[in-house]
Design goal:
It contains ten helices and 14 strands. By secondary structure, the protein is an alpha/beta fold. The chain binds zinc ion.
């Protein structure tokens, strides 16, 4: 677990900044009831109104004080619902504290399954311990559900086998905002093959979201700056182009090393290489993902 933290954090802050107490999580207001909380690498969404405080994801565990400080700067009410977009520890790390304080944690059933047992993220060679009971989702769903709060309808739906096997997209219908979890990142994305992730599933999920939003929609990626529909379309093009190239090389019997030498990401690197997966590592990851899907 420790090994990955600098990688995840490298998305947003200097590699040396290991002192979590110095990392600030900052709320940015999107409309009357909705904020995005950024800082520490992961984007959270916060909905606040007369009825309830609702938060999408809660960052790394050591950043819980920073997350709570950001929420407190917006409202003095307690968090009533935590919704997790998937099981990764940079999205569920605050569950333990917020759950103990009385928040109801909600997620897809596979998030609860994975958090309930020890996991191994094969590509990152990373062991993740099961979470304590208080951090687990207490309400789970399989396909979709909706929260009717503060005059807003927050619709959540599962996208099958995408970044993991338990991803959900969160759609604030009135506010015209979507939180994508890690189905969408602003750099070459990690696809968690050993947790059921699949590149074609990511592309299908992106297509589904592109089909339901418009030019005015605010798109919150799991990591990276806020986006819109055009950015999502560009991301889809990048993923499908690289995926198609690698699939055909695999079909032709090429080796991974030959695929890397062919530089299948070349025209995308300038824009997408800034995350924790440099181009070659991204190619290795997609290749393994495709090999596992055959
Ligand atoms: Zn993730």
């Amino acid at each position: 677990m420790k090994r990955l933290l600098p990688l995840v954090l490298a998305l947003a802050i200097p590699a040396l900044a290991q002192d979590y107490s110095k990392i600030k999580v900052t709320p940015t207001r999107l409309n009357d009831t909705t904020w995005v909380l950024s800082g520490g690498g992961t984007n959270l969404a916060l909905a606040v109104g007369p009825e309830a405080v609702f938060v999408v994801d809660d960052n790394l565990a050591p950043l819980t004080p920073a997350v709570r400080a950001a929420i407190s700067s917006v409202t003095d009410k307690p968090v009533r619902f935590v919704f997790n977009t998937h099981w990764h520890y940079d999205h569920v790390g605050g569950n333990e504290v917020l759950g103990r304080e009385g928040a109801t944690i909600v997620a897809h059933e596979n998030v609860r399954k994975r958090m309930s047992t020890d996991q191994f993220m094969e590509f990152l060679n990373e062991k993740i311990k099961a979470s304590p009971a208080v951090a687990l989702p207490v309400v789970t769903f399989t396909r979709d559900m909706a929260f009717h709060l503060n005059g807003e309808e927050i619709s959540v739906f599962h996208v099958a086998r995408a970044h993991t096997d338990g991803d959900a997209i969160v759609h604030f219908k009135k506010g015209n905002i979507v939180h994508m979890g890690d189905v969408y990142n602003r750099s070459y994305p990690f696809i968690d093959t050993s947790a059921g992730g699949n590149i074609d599933g990511v592309i299908a999920a992106i297509d589904q979201v592109i089909g339901m939003i418009n030019e005015k929609t605010t798109v919150i990626p799991g990591h990276g700056k806020l986006a819109g529909k055009a950015d999502l379309i560009e991301y889809r093009t990048m993923l499908s182009t690289i995926g198609t190239r690698l699939k055909s090389m695999m079909k032709e019997g090429k080796t991974l090393e030959q695929a890397i030498a062919a530089q299948p990401t070349r025209e995308f690197d300038d824009k997408w290489k800034s995350g924790f997966l440099p181009p070659e590592r991204f190619v290795r990851m997609v290749w393994q993902n495709l090999a596992a899907s055959q």
